[in-house]
Amino acid sequence: MKRPKLGAHVSVAGKLSNGIERAQSIGAECIQIFGASPKQWAVRGHEARDIEDFKKAREAAGIGPVYLHAAYLVNLCSPDSSSRQKSEVNLADHLKIASAIGAEGLIFHIGSGKEMPKDKALAIVVESIQRILLHVPGLAQLVIENSAGGGQKIGGNPEEIGEILSRVKSSRLKVCWDTAHAFESGIIEEYDAKRTKGMAKRLDQAFGMDALVAMHINDSKTAFNSRHDRHENIGQGHIGLEGFKVLAREKLFADAAWILEVPGFDGTGPDKKNIEILHSLFVRSR
Ligand SMILES: [Zn+2]
């Protein structure tokens, strides 16, 4: 049975290559990391030696793809122009790091236009993404993640993301679909066979599955349509193990890298147990 790469967000505290060690210790085949602090505007790059070590370790471990996750501060359509500017610079800086370390791309949330009309917010986002891609050449992709909705956030539904992709017109602009955010934003009420298939088709229609490079595989601590983003360990939240079993059977999701962003059973982040649960989803009982 064809299955996606199964992995997790891992810490690179200390040095980049620690992320590869962490991945191996929990059995992650692909990873997401922070390329720089997610809580600061200022971005510090990495020493050439640190990057080399990371690339070697990654190669030796056979881990990939590698995605970076952007800073939480980023809001490409903030009504405040100076925040917008800072967001664009910050995102470009993180994308440069992705490129420098040989990561496949940078996953980010678009942000919220707040009281701004949606059309205007979308236009601002499209232009900003185009400038960033122009400013940071190379192969590294910018990957839009669906939001949990709420607060006029852009990117809570596949059609809005599709609209941005079709207007930016770059093969480097991709999508990451978060299972918990889709549930929290009211896109899917239950991951049963019918609704899951429906969601997959809706994504395909909105932006095409070729654009779906990653999925954040998270259970949800909050209820359907809560617009409140809280991740839970797989099987411990409102989506539940059965929901993820259904998700695993959907072929349209098999080419994306599956990345856990769960709290972990001991509270220290994605762990071996969550990875093992993901693997168990693909074991077919006869
Ligand atoms: Zn996510």
UniProtKB/TrEMBL annotation:
SUPFAM superfamilies: Xylose isomerase-like (SSF51658)
Cofactor: Zn(2+)
GO biological process: base-excision repair
Annotated Xylose isomerase-like TIM barrel domain residues: 20-270
Single annotated GO MF: DNA-(apurinic or apyrimidinic site) endonuclease activity
Entries under CDD domains matching the protein: AP2Ec
Cleavable signal peptide: none
Listed InterPro entries: AP_endonuc_2, AP_endonuc_F2_Zn_BS, Xyl_isomerase-like_sf, Xyl_isomerase-like_TIM-brl
SMART domains in alphabetical order: AP2Ec
Pfam families: AP_endonuc_2
Keywords tagged on the record: DNA damage, DNA repair, Hydrolase, Metal-binding, Zinc
PANTHER family reported in the protein's UniProt record: APURINIC-APYRIMIDINIC ENDONUCLEASE (PTHR21445:SF0), ENDONUCLEASE IV ENDODEOXYRIBONUCLEASE IV (PTHR21445)
Protein family membership: Belongs to the AP endonuclease 2 family.
The protein's name: Deoxyribonuclease IV
